Fold this sequence. Notes:
The structure holds three protein chains of three kinds.
Chain A: H1 7-30, H2 34-59, H3 63-93
Helix pairs in contact in A: 1-2, 2-3
Chain B: H1 8-25, H2 32-54, E1 62-72, E2 75-83, H3 85-108, H4 115-134, H5 138-156, H6 163-194, H7 199-207, H8 214-230, H9 239-242, H10 248-257, H11 262-269, H12 271-274, H13 280-300, H14 305-325, H15 329-356, E3 366-367, H16 374-388, H17 394-412, H18 416-444, E4 449-450, H19 473-502, H20 505-511, E5 520-521, E6 524-525, H21 526-551, H22 553-562, H23 564-571, H24 576-621, H25 629-651
Chain C: H1 2-21, H2 30-54, E1 64-72, E2 77-83, H3 85-104, H4 113-132, H5 136-145, H6 147-157, H7 162-191, H8 198-201, H9 210-227, H10 236-243, H11 246-271, H12 273-299, H13 304-323, H14 328-359, H15 370-373, H16 375-389, H17 395-409, H18 415-439, H19 459-477, H20 480-497, H21 499-506, H22 515-519, H23 525-538
Antiparallel strand pairs in C: 1-2
Amino acid sequence: MFEPIHSLALTHYLITGAILFVLGLIGFVTRRNLIIMFLCTEMMFQGVSISLVAFSRYHLNMTGQTFVIFVLTIAAAEAALALGLVVLLFRRKHTLDSEAWSSMSG
Amino acid sequence: MTLQFARFIPWLPIVAAIFCALCCTKKSWRHYASWICLASVVGSFILSLMAGSIITPGKEAQTVTFFEWIHAGRFQANFHYYFDTLTIVMLYVITGIGSLVIWYAGGYMKGDRGYARFFMAVSLFIFSMTTLVMADNLLLLFLGWEGVGLCSYLLIGYYYDKPSAVAAGKKAFIVNRIGDLCFILGIFLTYREFGTIAYEPLFEALADMEHATGSVAAIPFLFMLGAFGKSAQLPLYVWLPDAMEGPTPVSALIHAATMVTAGVYLIARMMPMFVLSPYALPVVATVGGLTALFAATIALCQYDIKRIFAYSTVSQLGYMFLGLGAASSVGAVFHLFTHAFFKALLFLTAGSVMHAMAGQLDLRKMGGLRHKMPVTCWLMFAGCLALAGVPLFSGFYSKDLILGDAMAAGLNGHNPWMTVLAWMGLFTAFLTAFYTFRLWFRVFWGPDQCVMGDDHHDDGGGHHPHEPHEMPWSMNLPLVFLAVGAVIGGMVCHEWMTTMVLSSSAGEALSHGGTAHHASLFGMDVHSAVMVLSIAAALLGIALAAWFHLIRPSAADRVKQSYAGLCDLLENKYFVDELYDAVVVRPLKLIGSVCFVIDRLVIDGMVSLVGFAPRLLGLTVRPTQSGSLQGYGLSMVVGLAIMLLLVTLMWGY
Amino acid sequence: MGLDIALLPLLVIFPLLSGLMLPFLGGDDPQRIKSFALISSLFTFVFSLGLLVGYDFSNSAEMGLVTDVSWFESLGLTFSFGVDAISIWLVLLTTLLMPLVILGSFSAIKFRIREFFFWLLLLEAAMIGVFVATDILFFYICFEFTLIPMYFLIGIYGSSQRLKAAKMLFLYTFTGSMLTFAGILYMAWCNGSWDFSFEALSHAHENMTTNQQVLAMLAMLAGFAVKVPLFPVHTWLPLAHTEAPTAGSVVLAGVLLKLGTYALIRLAIPMLPDAALVVAPYMGILAVVGVIYAALICWVQKDIKKLVAYSSVSHLGFCVLGMFALNVQGLSGSVMYMINHGLSTGALFLLIGMIYERFHTREMSQIQGLGRVMPIWATFMVFFAMASVGLPGLNGFVGEFLTLFGAFQSAVLGPAYAAVAGLGLIFGAIYILHMVGKVVWGPVKIPQGHENDAKDLTGREITVLLPLAILCLWLGVYPMPILRTLDQPAQAIMERVGTDLLEENQAKPPVRYDYHSHVRAEISSDATLTLKTLSEGGR
């Protein structure tokens, strides 16, 4: 069916995934715009997804790819929901700054 | 004829109590209450007479079974009644005197708002008191014991608009409870030692004992304290003088003739147990003798008629205990019997005076009443003679018996303390005669004087004449019966009483330990010598009273001035109430307040502290929940990094 | 036979269903809701009378009318029902008090009426459930569930500090019960099977050392002693009582506190017999301290309701004292005390509620001398006060006497306990007469603006009080119908604990025995050791 990829190729994929993940992470932690933070989390998803697909090809089983399909579908649903929420929040305070929503602090 | 009917002696009055309670509900029914009550008590009296015709001296005591009360495991206490001659004597006193007092009260209380309530409580009292003396076990006796306490509480506080009456009722109940606690502990201990609290098996077990040791010797002391509470002896006598806040018939019936003698009855009943303990009876005698003297001295300087009689009652009860302590249960019960007559008479005549004077009780505000109330005057005179112990009157016989027995016990047993107590008793007899006639002379003789009281008897608009007046014969007639008893009761009943008491458990206990009366005093037989002495004491007392309060009133004032400190001490009753208040009541209340503070602050505080611990934990970690999304993200990353680091370090990658 | 099986589940389900039906009852007429609640509670009472017919009292220590209703078949969990004499009387107390309470709150509750009766009926179901349960899970569920209706009854309908009181009641008792639950699990674990029926757990102690039992006992006490409430963990009670609406106070005093004592007598003592012997003296001390301490506090109270609330703490001390006397008199006295306290204190709370309804205050300095203006109320007040003081001839005395008697004769406690607790009799008289003296006697004093409210009791209010008064008198004069049935259960408990042998030797008069040398060979080694150490420590 498929050829297993070489371990060197796997390393490359993993590094790509890690870079995407860390970029997303840095973006999430540093930016305060809700939409950009949301996009950053999506980026982290993709980083993880690349690693999962790479492992799937490396081990020659479908588990990793199955996970990715799940992640994608949930991400799609979540995107719809989250963007809707962001719109709602924006309507309330006319800002997208995440600091504006800290009323749940202890 | 069997004794089955006798079980109704207490239950007739309780039926009456229920009917009287119904009478409370409607104003127009109110006046029936006294008749219902009187009918039931007379009925009980007749039943008592019938029982008395069956239980005669020499007959075995009988138990009448009724129903089970409290059973738990082996413990049993039933509503069963025990009849011996002592029970019969007590029943005569309770129902007989009770009928006469209720008869009088029917007139005395007329027009009062609480008329039906009064007779309900009195009926309840007769129930409790008859149960007390008829009980076949100690717990049923305790039921009667507490029951009379309740009725006493309700009746002392009868005029409940008066705060002093309410306080007096409360005091009576609480002081009695102190004795009651000791009594009930005595019951517990009796069961622990004998496995029963019913009289018959108890007396059987006691008959087999030679000497009481250990706990058995302690039981009489517990009973004794109970008796001291109910019979107002030192140190628990303080409630009785205050109890005079109740209506006068109550003072006569409950606080002179019957209830307060329950303690005497208890010790007489438990005599088989008391004689076994070497120290029990001497202690009873000591307390009795001291109380007699102590209360008599207080009575010397009081001005309130009813209070004088109240202290006199305490003093006379002291005599009875002295008699019991001298192992003269005949003397004690005899004095109980005669005292019931003359003291009820004295109280009721005092009630007549009070009634006539619109509630005035102060000796200083009356005088010369013999013209306006001749019948009352001479009725009270009869009572006074009996109380003072003038020969041929009833009090003379019984008091003399007690003093003679005490003196004989002291001289025979070479017991100097008992001898001292007997001499004290003689001195008290002199004081008794003095204060009794001080009262009588001041009320009925001397210059005419009457300052009416302001009490309108709470009768909702009944008119009061502005002059003292004689009582109607409906009220004086029962007094005449009492007076007859007070005059001839001693003479007529002397022999009968001796056989009755000796054939009961109170007498049997003494017979086998009895000492021969051989001792002599002043070369005479002890009893004759004491008789001479007590006659002298009585006459001296009367003479002195006549001198100070009839012939030379100014001399009385001079004496009072020269001994002002002493008079002050006596007038204030040795400040015992104040002492108790400072030593017992206030500290206890303070402890209560302190406990409340402790409860609020310390105990509740500790609970709050426990509740505070999780809260504190929350407070410490609270700042980490900043509400900033980035912060959470960062902490997640840091946490993850630390975890990864740990994992790599541990697995050594 | 059919009814026998259905009766106990019916007693739980009927009030539960009636309660659940209340929200769907059409119409907004408050009168209809009230009558519905009253009638369904009366029906429950009538059903509960069936217990007297259906149960065989000649064998009153045995569980009767036993029924199992399957719950989680796969886990082997069932609701098991069964009653013995102790539980029957407590069920009857509950079903009797409930209609009276409902009738008594007809005029007191003015808003959210539907909800009020809903909670009351649910509460009744849960309380009956506790008394008829014979497996510990069912028992525990009902035991805990009582908190929820109580929380809302106090939190919604209470006085000014109601929220604090409700919270305190909930957290206090809930914390305790959590520990109890842990203890139950621990017992089952020691027992080696996850069978939670009383029957199975009653053998758990055979697999436990005394130390393990004591541990489990402490866990049980944590929950039950709070509920009773025993001396140092009583502080939730005065607040809850004072703040609760009348119905809440009556149920709280009448039944809810008894859940604690009932649990002690049903679970803690018989299931952990050796531990019971070990803790008995300490429990006795706590009980005695509680009696005296709470009674003294009563004396300085200014709020009538708080006074009666503290008196409950004092009274329940007697109850626990009798229980840990571990002899027939103490145990049956303790059960009598539960019933009697439910009647007389319940009535006192009702009476106070009637006053509060009229004058909107409970301060003794504000309301005085009501005997003159409200004679019927005053009569009832004096009557129930006397029952509460323990006047012989009224019900309070029977329990008080037997518990003290039990403590005095007990081989594990002793005369000192009874003597000190007996001071409670004196202090009890002091505080009750203090209250009666202020509120009933004396010159009339009525709060300003309420001069026209000093009307005597209505027919409805008399109907509420009269059954209680009659029962108080009856149980005081002739308590045998109940007392007779308590001998056997008490005996059974003693046999489990091993104190029956002590009793045996003690009762032979008048020779006194050295109990401990006499029975050492006869009872289980653990218990003997315990007794020995106790007696040596005591000398």
